[in-house]
Amino acid sequence: MSVEILIIDDNSDIRLILDELIKDAGYKTRLAANFNQALLEIDKKLPDVAIIDVKLDKGDNDGIQLLDHIKQKNNDIPVIMISGHANIEMAINSLKSGAFEFIQKPFDKDRLLNFVNRAVENFNLKKENKNLNNKLFHSFDLIGKSNNILSIKDQIEKLSQSESRVFINGPTGSGKELVARKIYKKSKRNKGPFVIINGALLDTKKYELELFGEEKKDGSILYGAFEKASGGVLLIDEVTEIPLETQSKILRVIIDQKFKRLNGNHDIKVDVRIFCSTSKDILTEIKNGNFREDLFHRLNVFNIKIDPLTRRIEDIPLLIDYFIVNICNTYRYKKFSIKDNNYLLNYDWPGNVRELRNLIERIAILSPGDNQDKIINIIKESLSRSLDENFSVTDTLSVPLREARETFEKEYLISQIKKFGGNISKTAKFVGMERSALHRKLKILGVKDLN
User: Fold this and answer.
1) Cα 446 from Cα 434, distance rounded (Å)
2) What is the dihedral of CA 45, 51, 55, 58, to 10 degrees?
3) What letter does residue 165 receive in the DSSP assignment?
4) In degrees rounded to 5, what are phi and psi of residue 6?
5) pLDDT tens digits along 230-258
């Protein structure tokens, strides 16, 4: 959907110049020639960006009244104020009232267009943050009755009332992001953005760009994760994958509560609650020199450890029932039950809760209702193939567990990609990964294009 910009000016020549300039830049426009027309246009449909002359036909500052009117309806809409009678006091008053920028007539077209582009970028950034906050990424509940899950639920309640930084440890697929989201949703920051940045998925040359943003030569700004998360929560997933040089800069941000964008000269104040997570043994990473101990102590104000599913067997029946209801209701599949859980209870679950969820979804797709024989066959086929067909046990008995699991992951993903005819998007959805995460995982495992 294209961006729409409302132009409000009582000078027809100025309206025409602005209209042509902005349309040439690829944006849609609406025009208003006076105060009353502007009110009608604003109330009819809020624009994405507005350009308003300070002085219209109702008085010296009726443009400011329109600015206030827009801000009362939606404070996120950037408004650029223009005036042919500008002075410093007028500019200051406009900016105090919430204007995005102020420019004096006659204006330089390139400068004005730069303001417009920055305003659009600002609007899109705020919109993106809201979408991230509201997006359903299968917002599952934290299910379980094990001591580990009960303890985590208690910790979530306590941490939601604080501003402490949180460090979450747990194996892949155990629910680290879910725990972070639960704290966020119960906290006073739940109206702000929830931004995730994954240390394992970033281009090694762009860590600082992704975190701190950049000020370009043309005056435009690329906002980094710290600014995108302003007023909310930033989750740095797989934080142990971030290079030591960048780790030192994150430490400095935490200490100083400010940073500079790349190529920037001005300090940006930080208003972000930081959560971090890792599937690695953080103390081993510190001992091996891969992670800064001083940064860990800053981040690890409160630690949450999620046990692998094999250490909380009592949670499996509850998770099975929960996923059946959730998945069948979400996708309108036929309801079913699993009367014999023995096979599931004795499985190793290398992919933890995510793998269990994927299995339940597979059963929901393939199973004709509550046919227990069919269900058991699907379970045995899925799990046995994962363990026996996708890698040879005899070939892996002589290697460390981590290497064996990497072999399993590689063969499993190759099998799934082939099953979906090389379609990465469908494969990613089935295995429970983001498309970009799957690409990164394939690269790490050395899997080349299978198309």
Assistant:
1) 18
2) -10
3) -
4) -95, 125
5) 999 999 999 999 999 999 999 999 999 99
For residue 379, what are the contacts with CB-CB under 8 A and spacing of at least 6?
Answer: 338, 343, 344, 359, 363
Residue 287 to residue 305: CA distance in whole angstroms: 19
Distance CA 20, CA 6 (A): 13
* Plot region of 104 (φ>0 → left; ψ -120 to 50 → alpha; else → beta): beta
Report all structural domains of the chain as residue ranges with CATH numbers, in order of start.
4-128 (3.40.50.2300), 147-307 (3.40.50.300), 310-445 (1.10.8.60)
Calpha distance 326→140 (Å, rounded): 8
Token representation of residue 195: 């931004």
Nearest of 52, 49, 46 to residue 32 by alpha carbon:
52
- What is the pLDDT averaged over residues 29-46? 90
Question: Which residues are CB-neighbours of 381 under 8 A, at least 6 positions away?
Answer: none
Residue scoring higher pLDDT (401 or 313): 313
In angstroms, the first-to-last Cα distance of the chain is: 32
Strands 273-278 and 166-169: parallel
The model's pLDDT over 280-313, given as tens digits with 9 standing for 90+, comes to: 999 999 999 999 999 999 999 999 999 999 999 9
397's enclosing H/E stretch is: none
Per-residue confidence at 328, pLDDT binned at 50, 70, 90?
Answer: confident
CB 257 within 8 Å of CB 270: yes
pLDDT in tens, 405-450: 677 777 778 877 866 667 888 888 877 788 888 888 888 777 765 6
CA–CA gap between residue 27 and residue 23 (Å, rounded): 5
| 8: pLDDT strictly greater than 90 | yes
Measured distance CA(443)–CA(449) in Å, rounded: 10
Note the pTM of the prediction, 2 decimals: 0.59
**% of the chain beyond a pLDDT of 70:** 88
Residues 6+ apart with CB under 8 A from 321: none
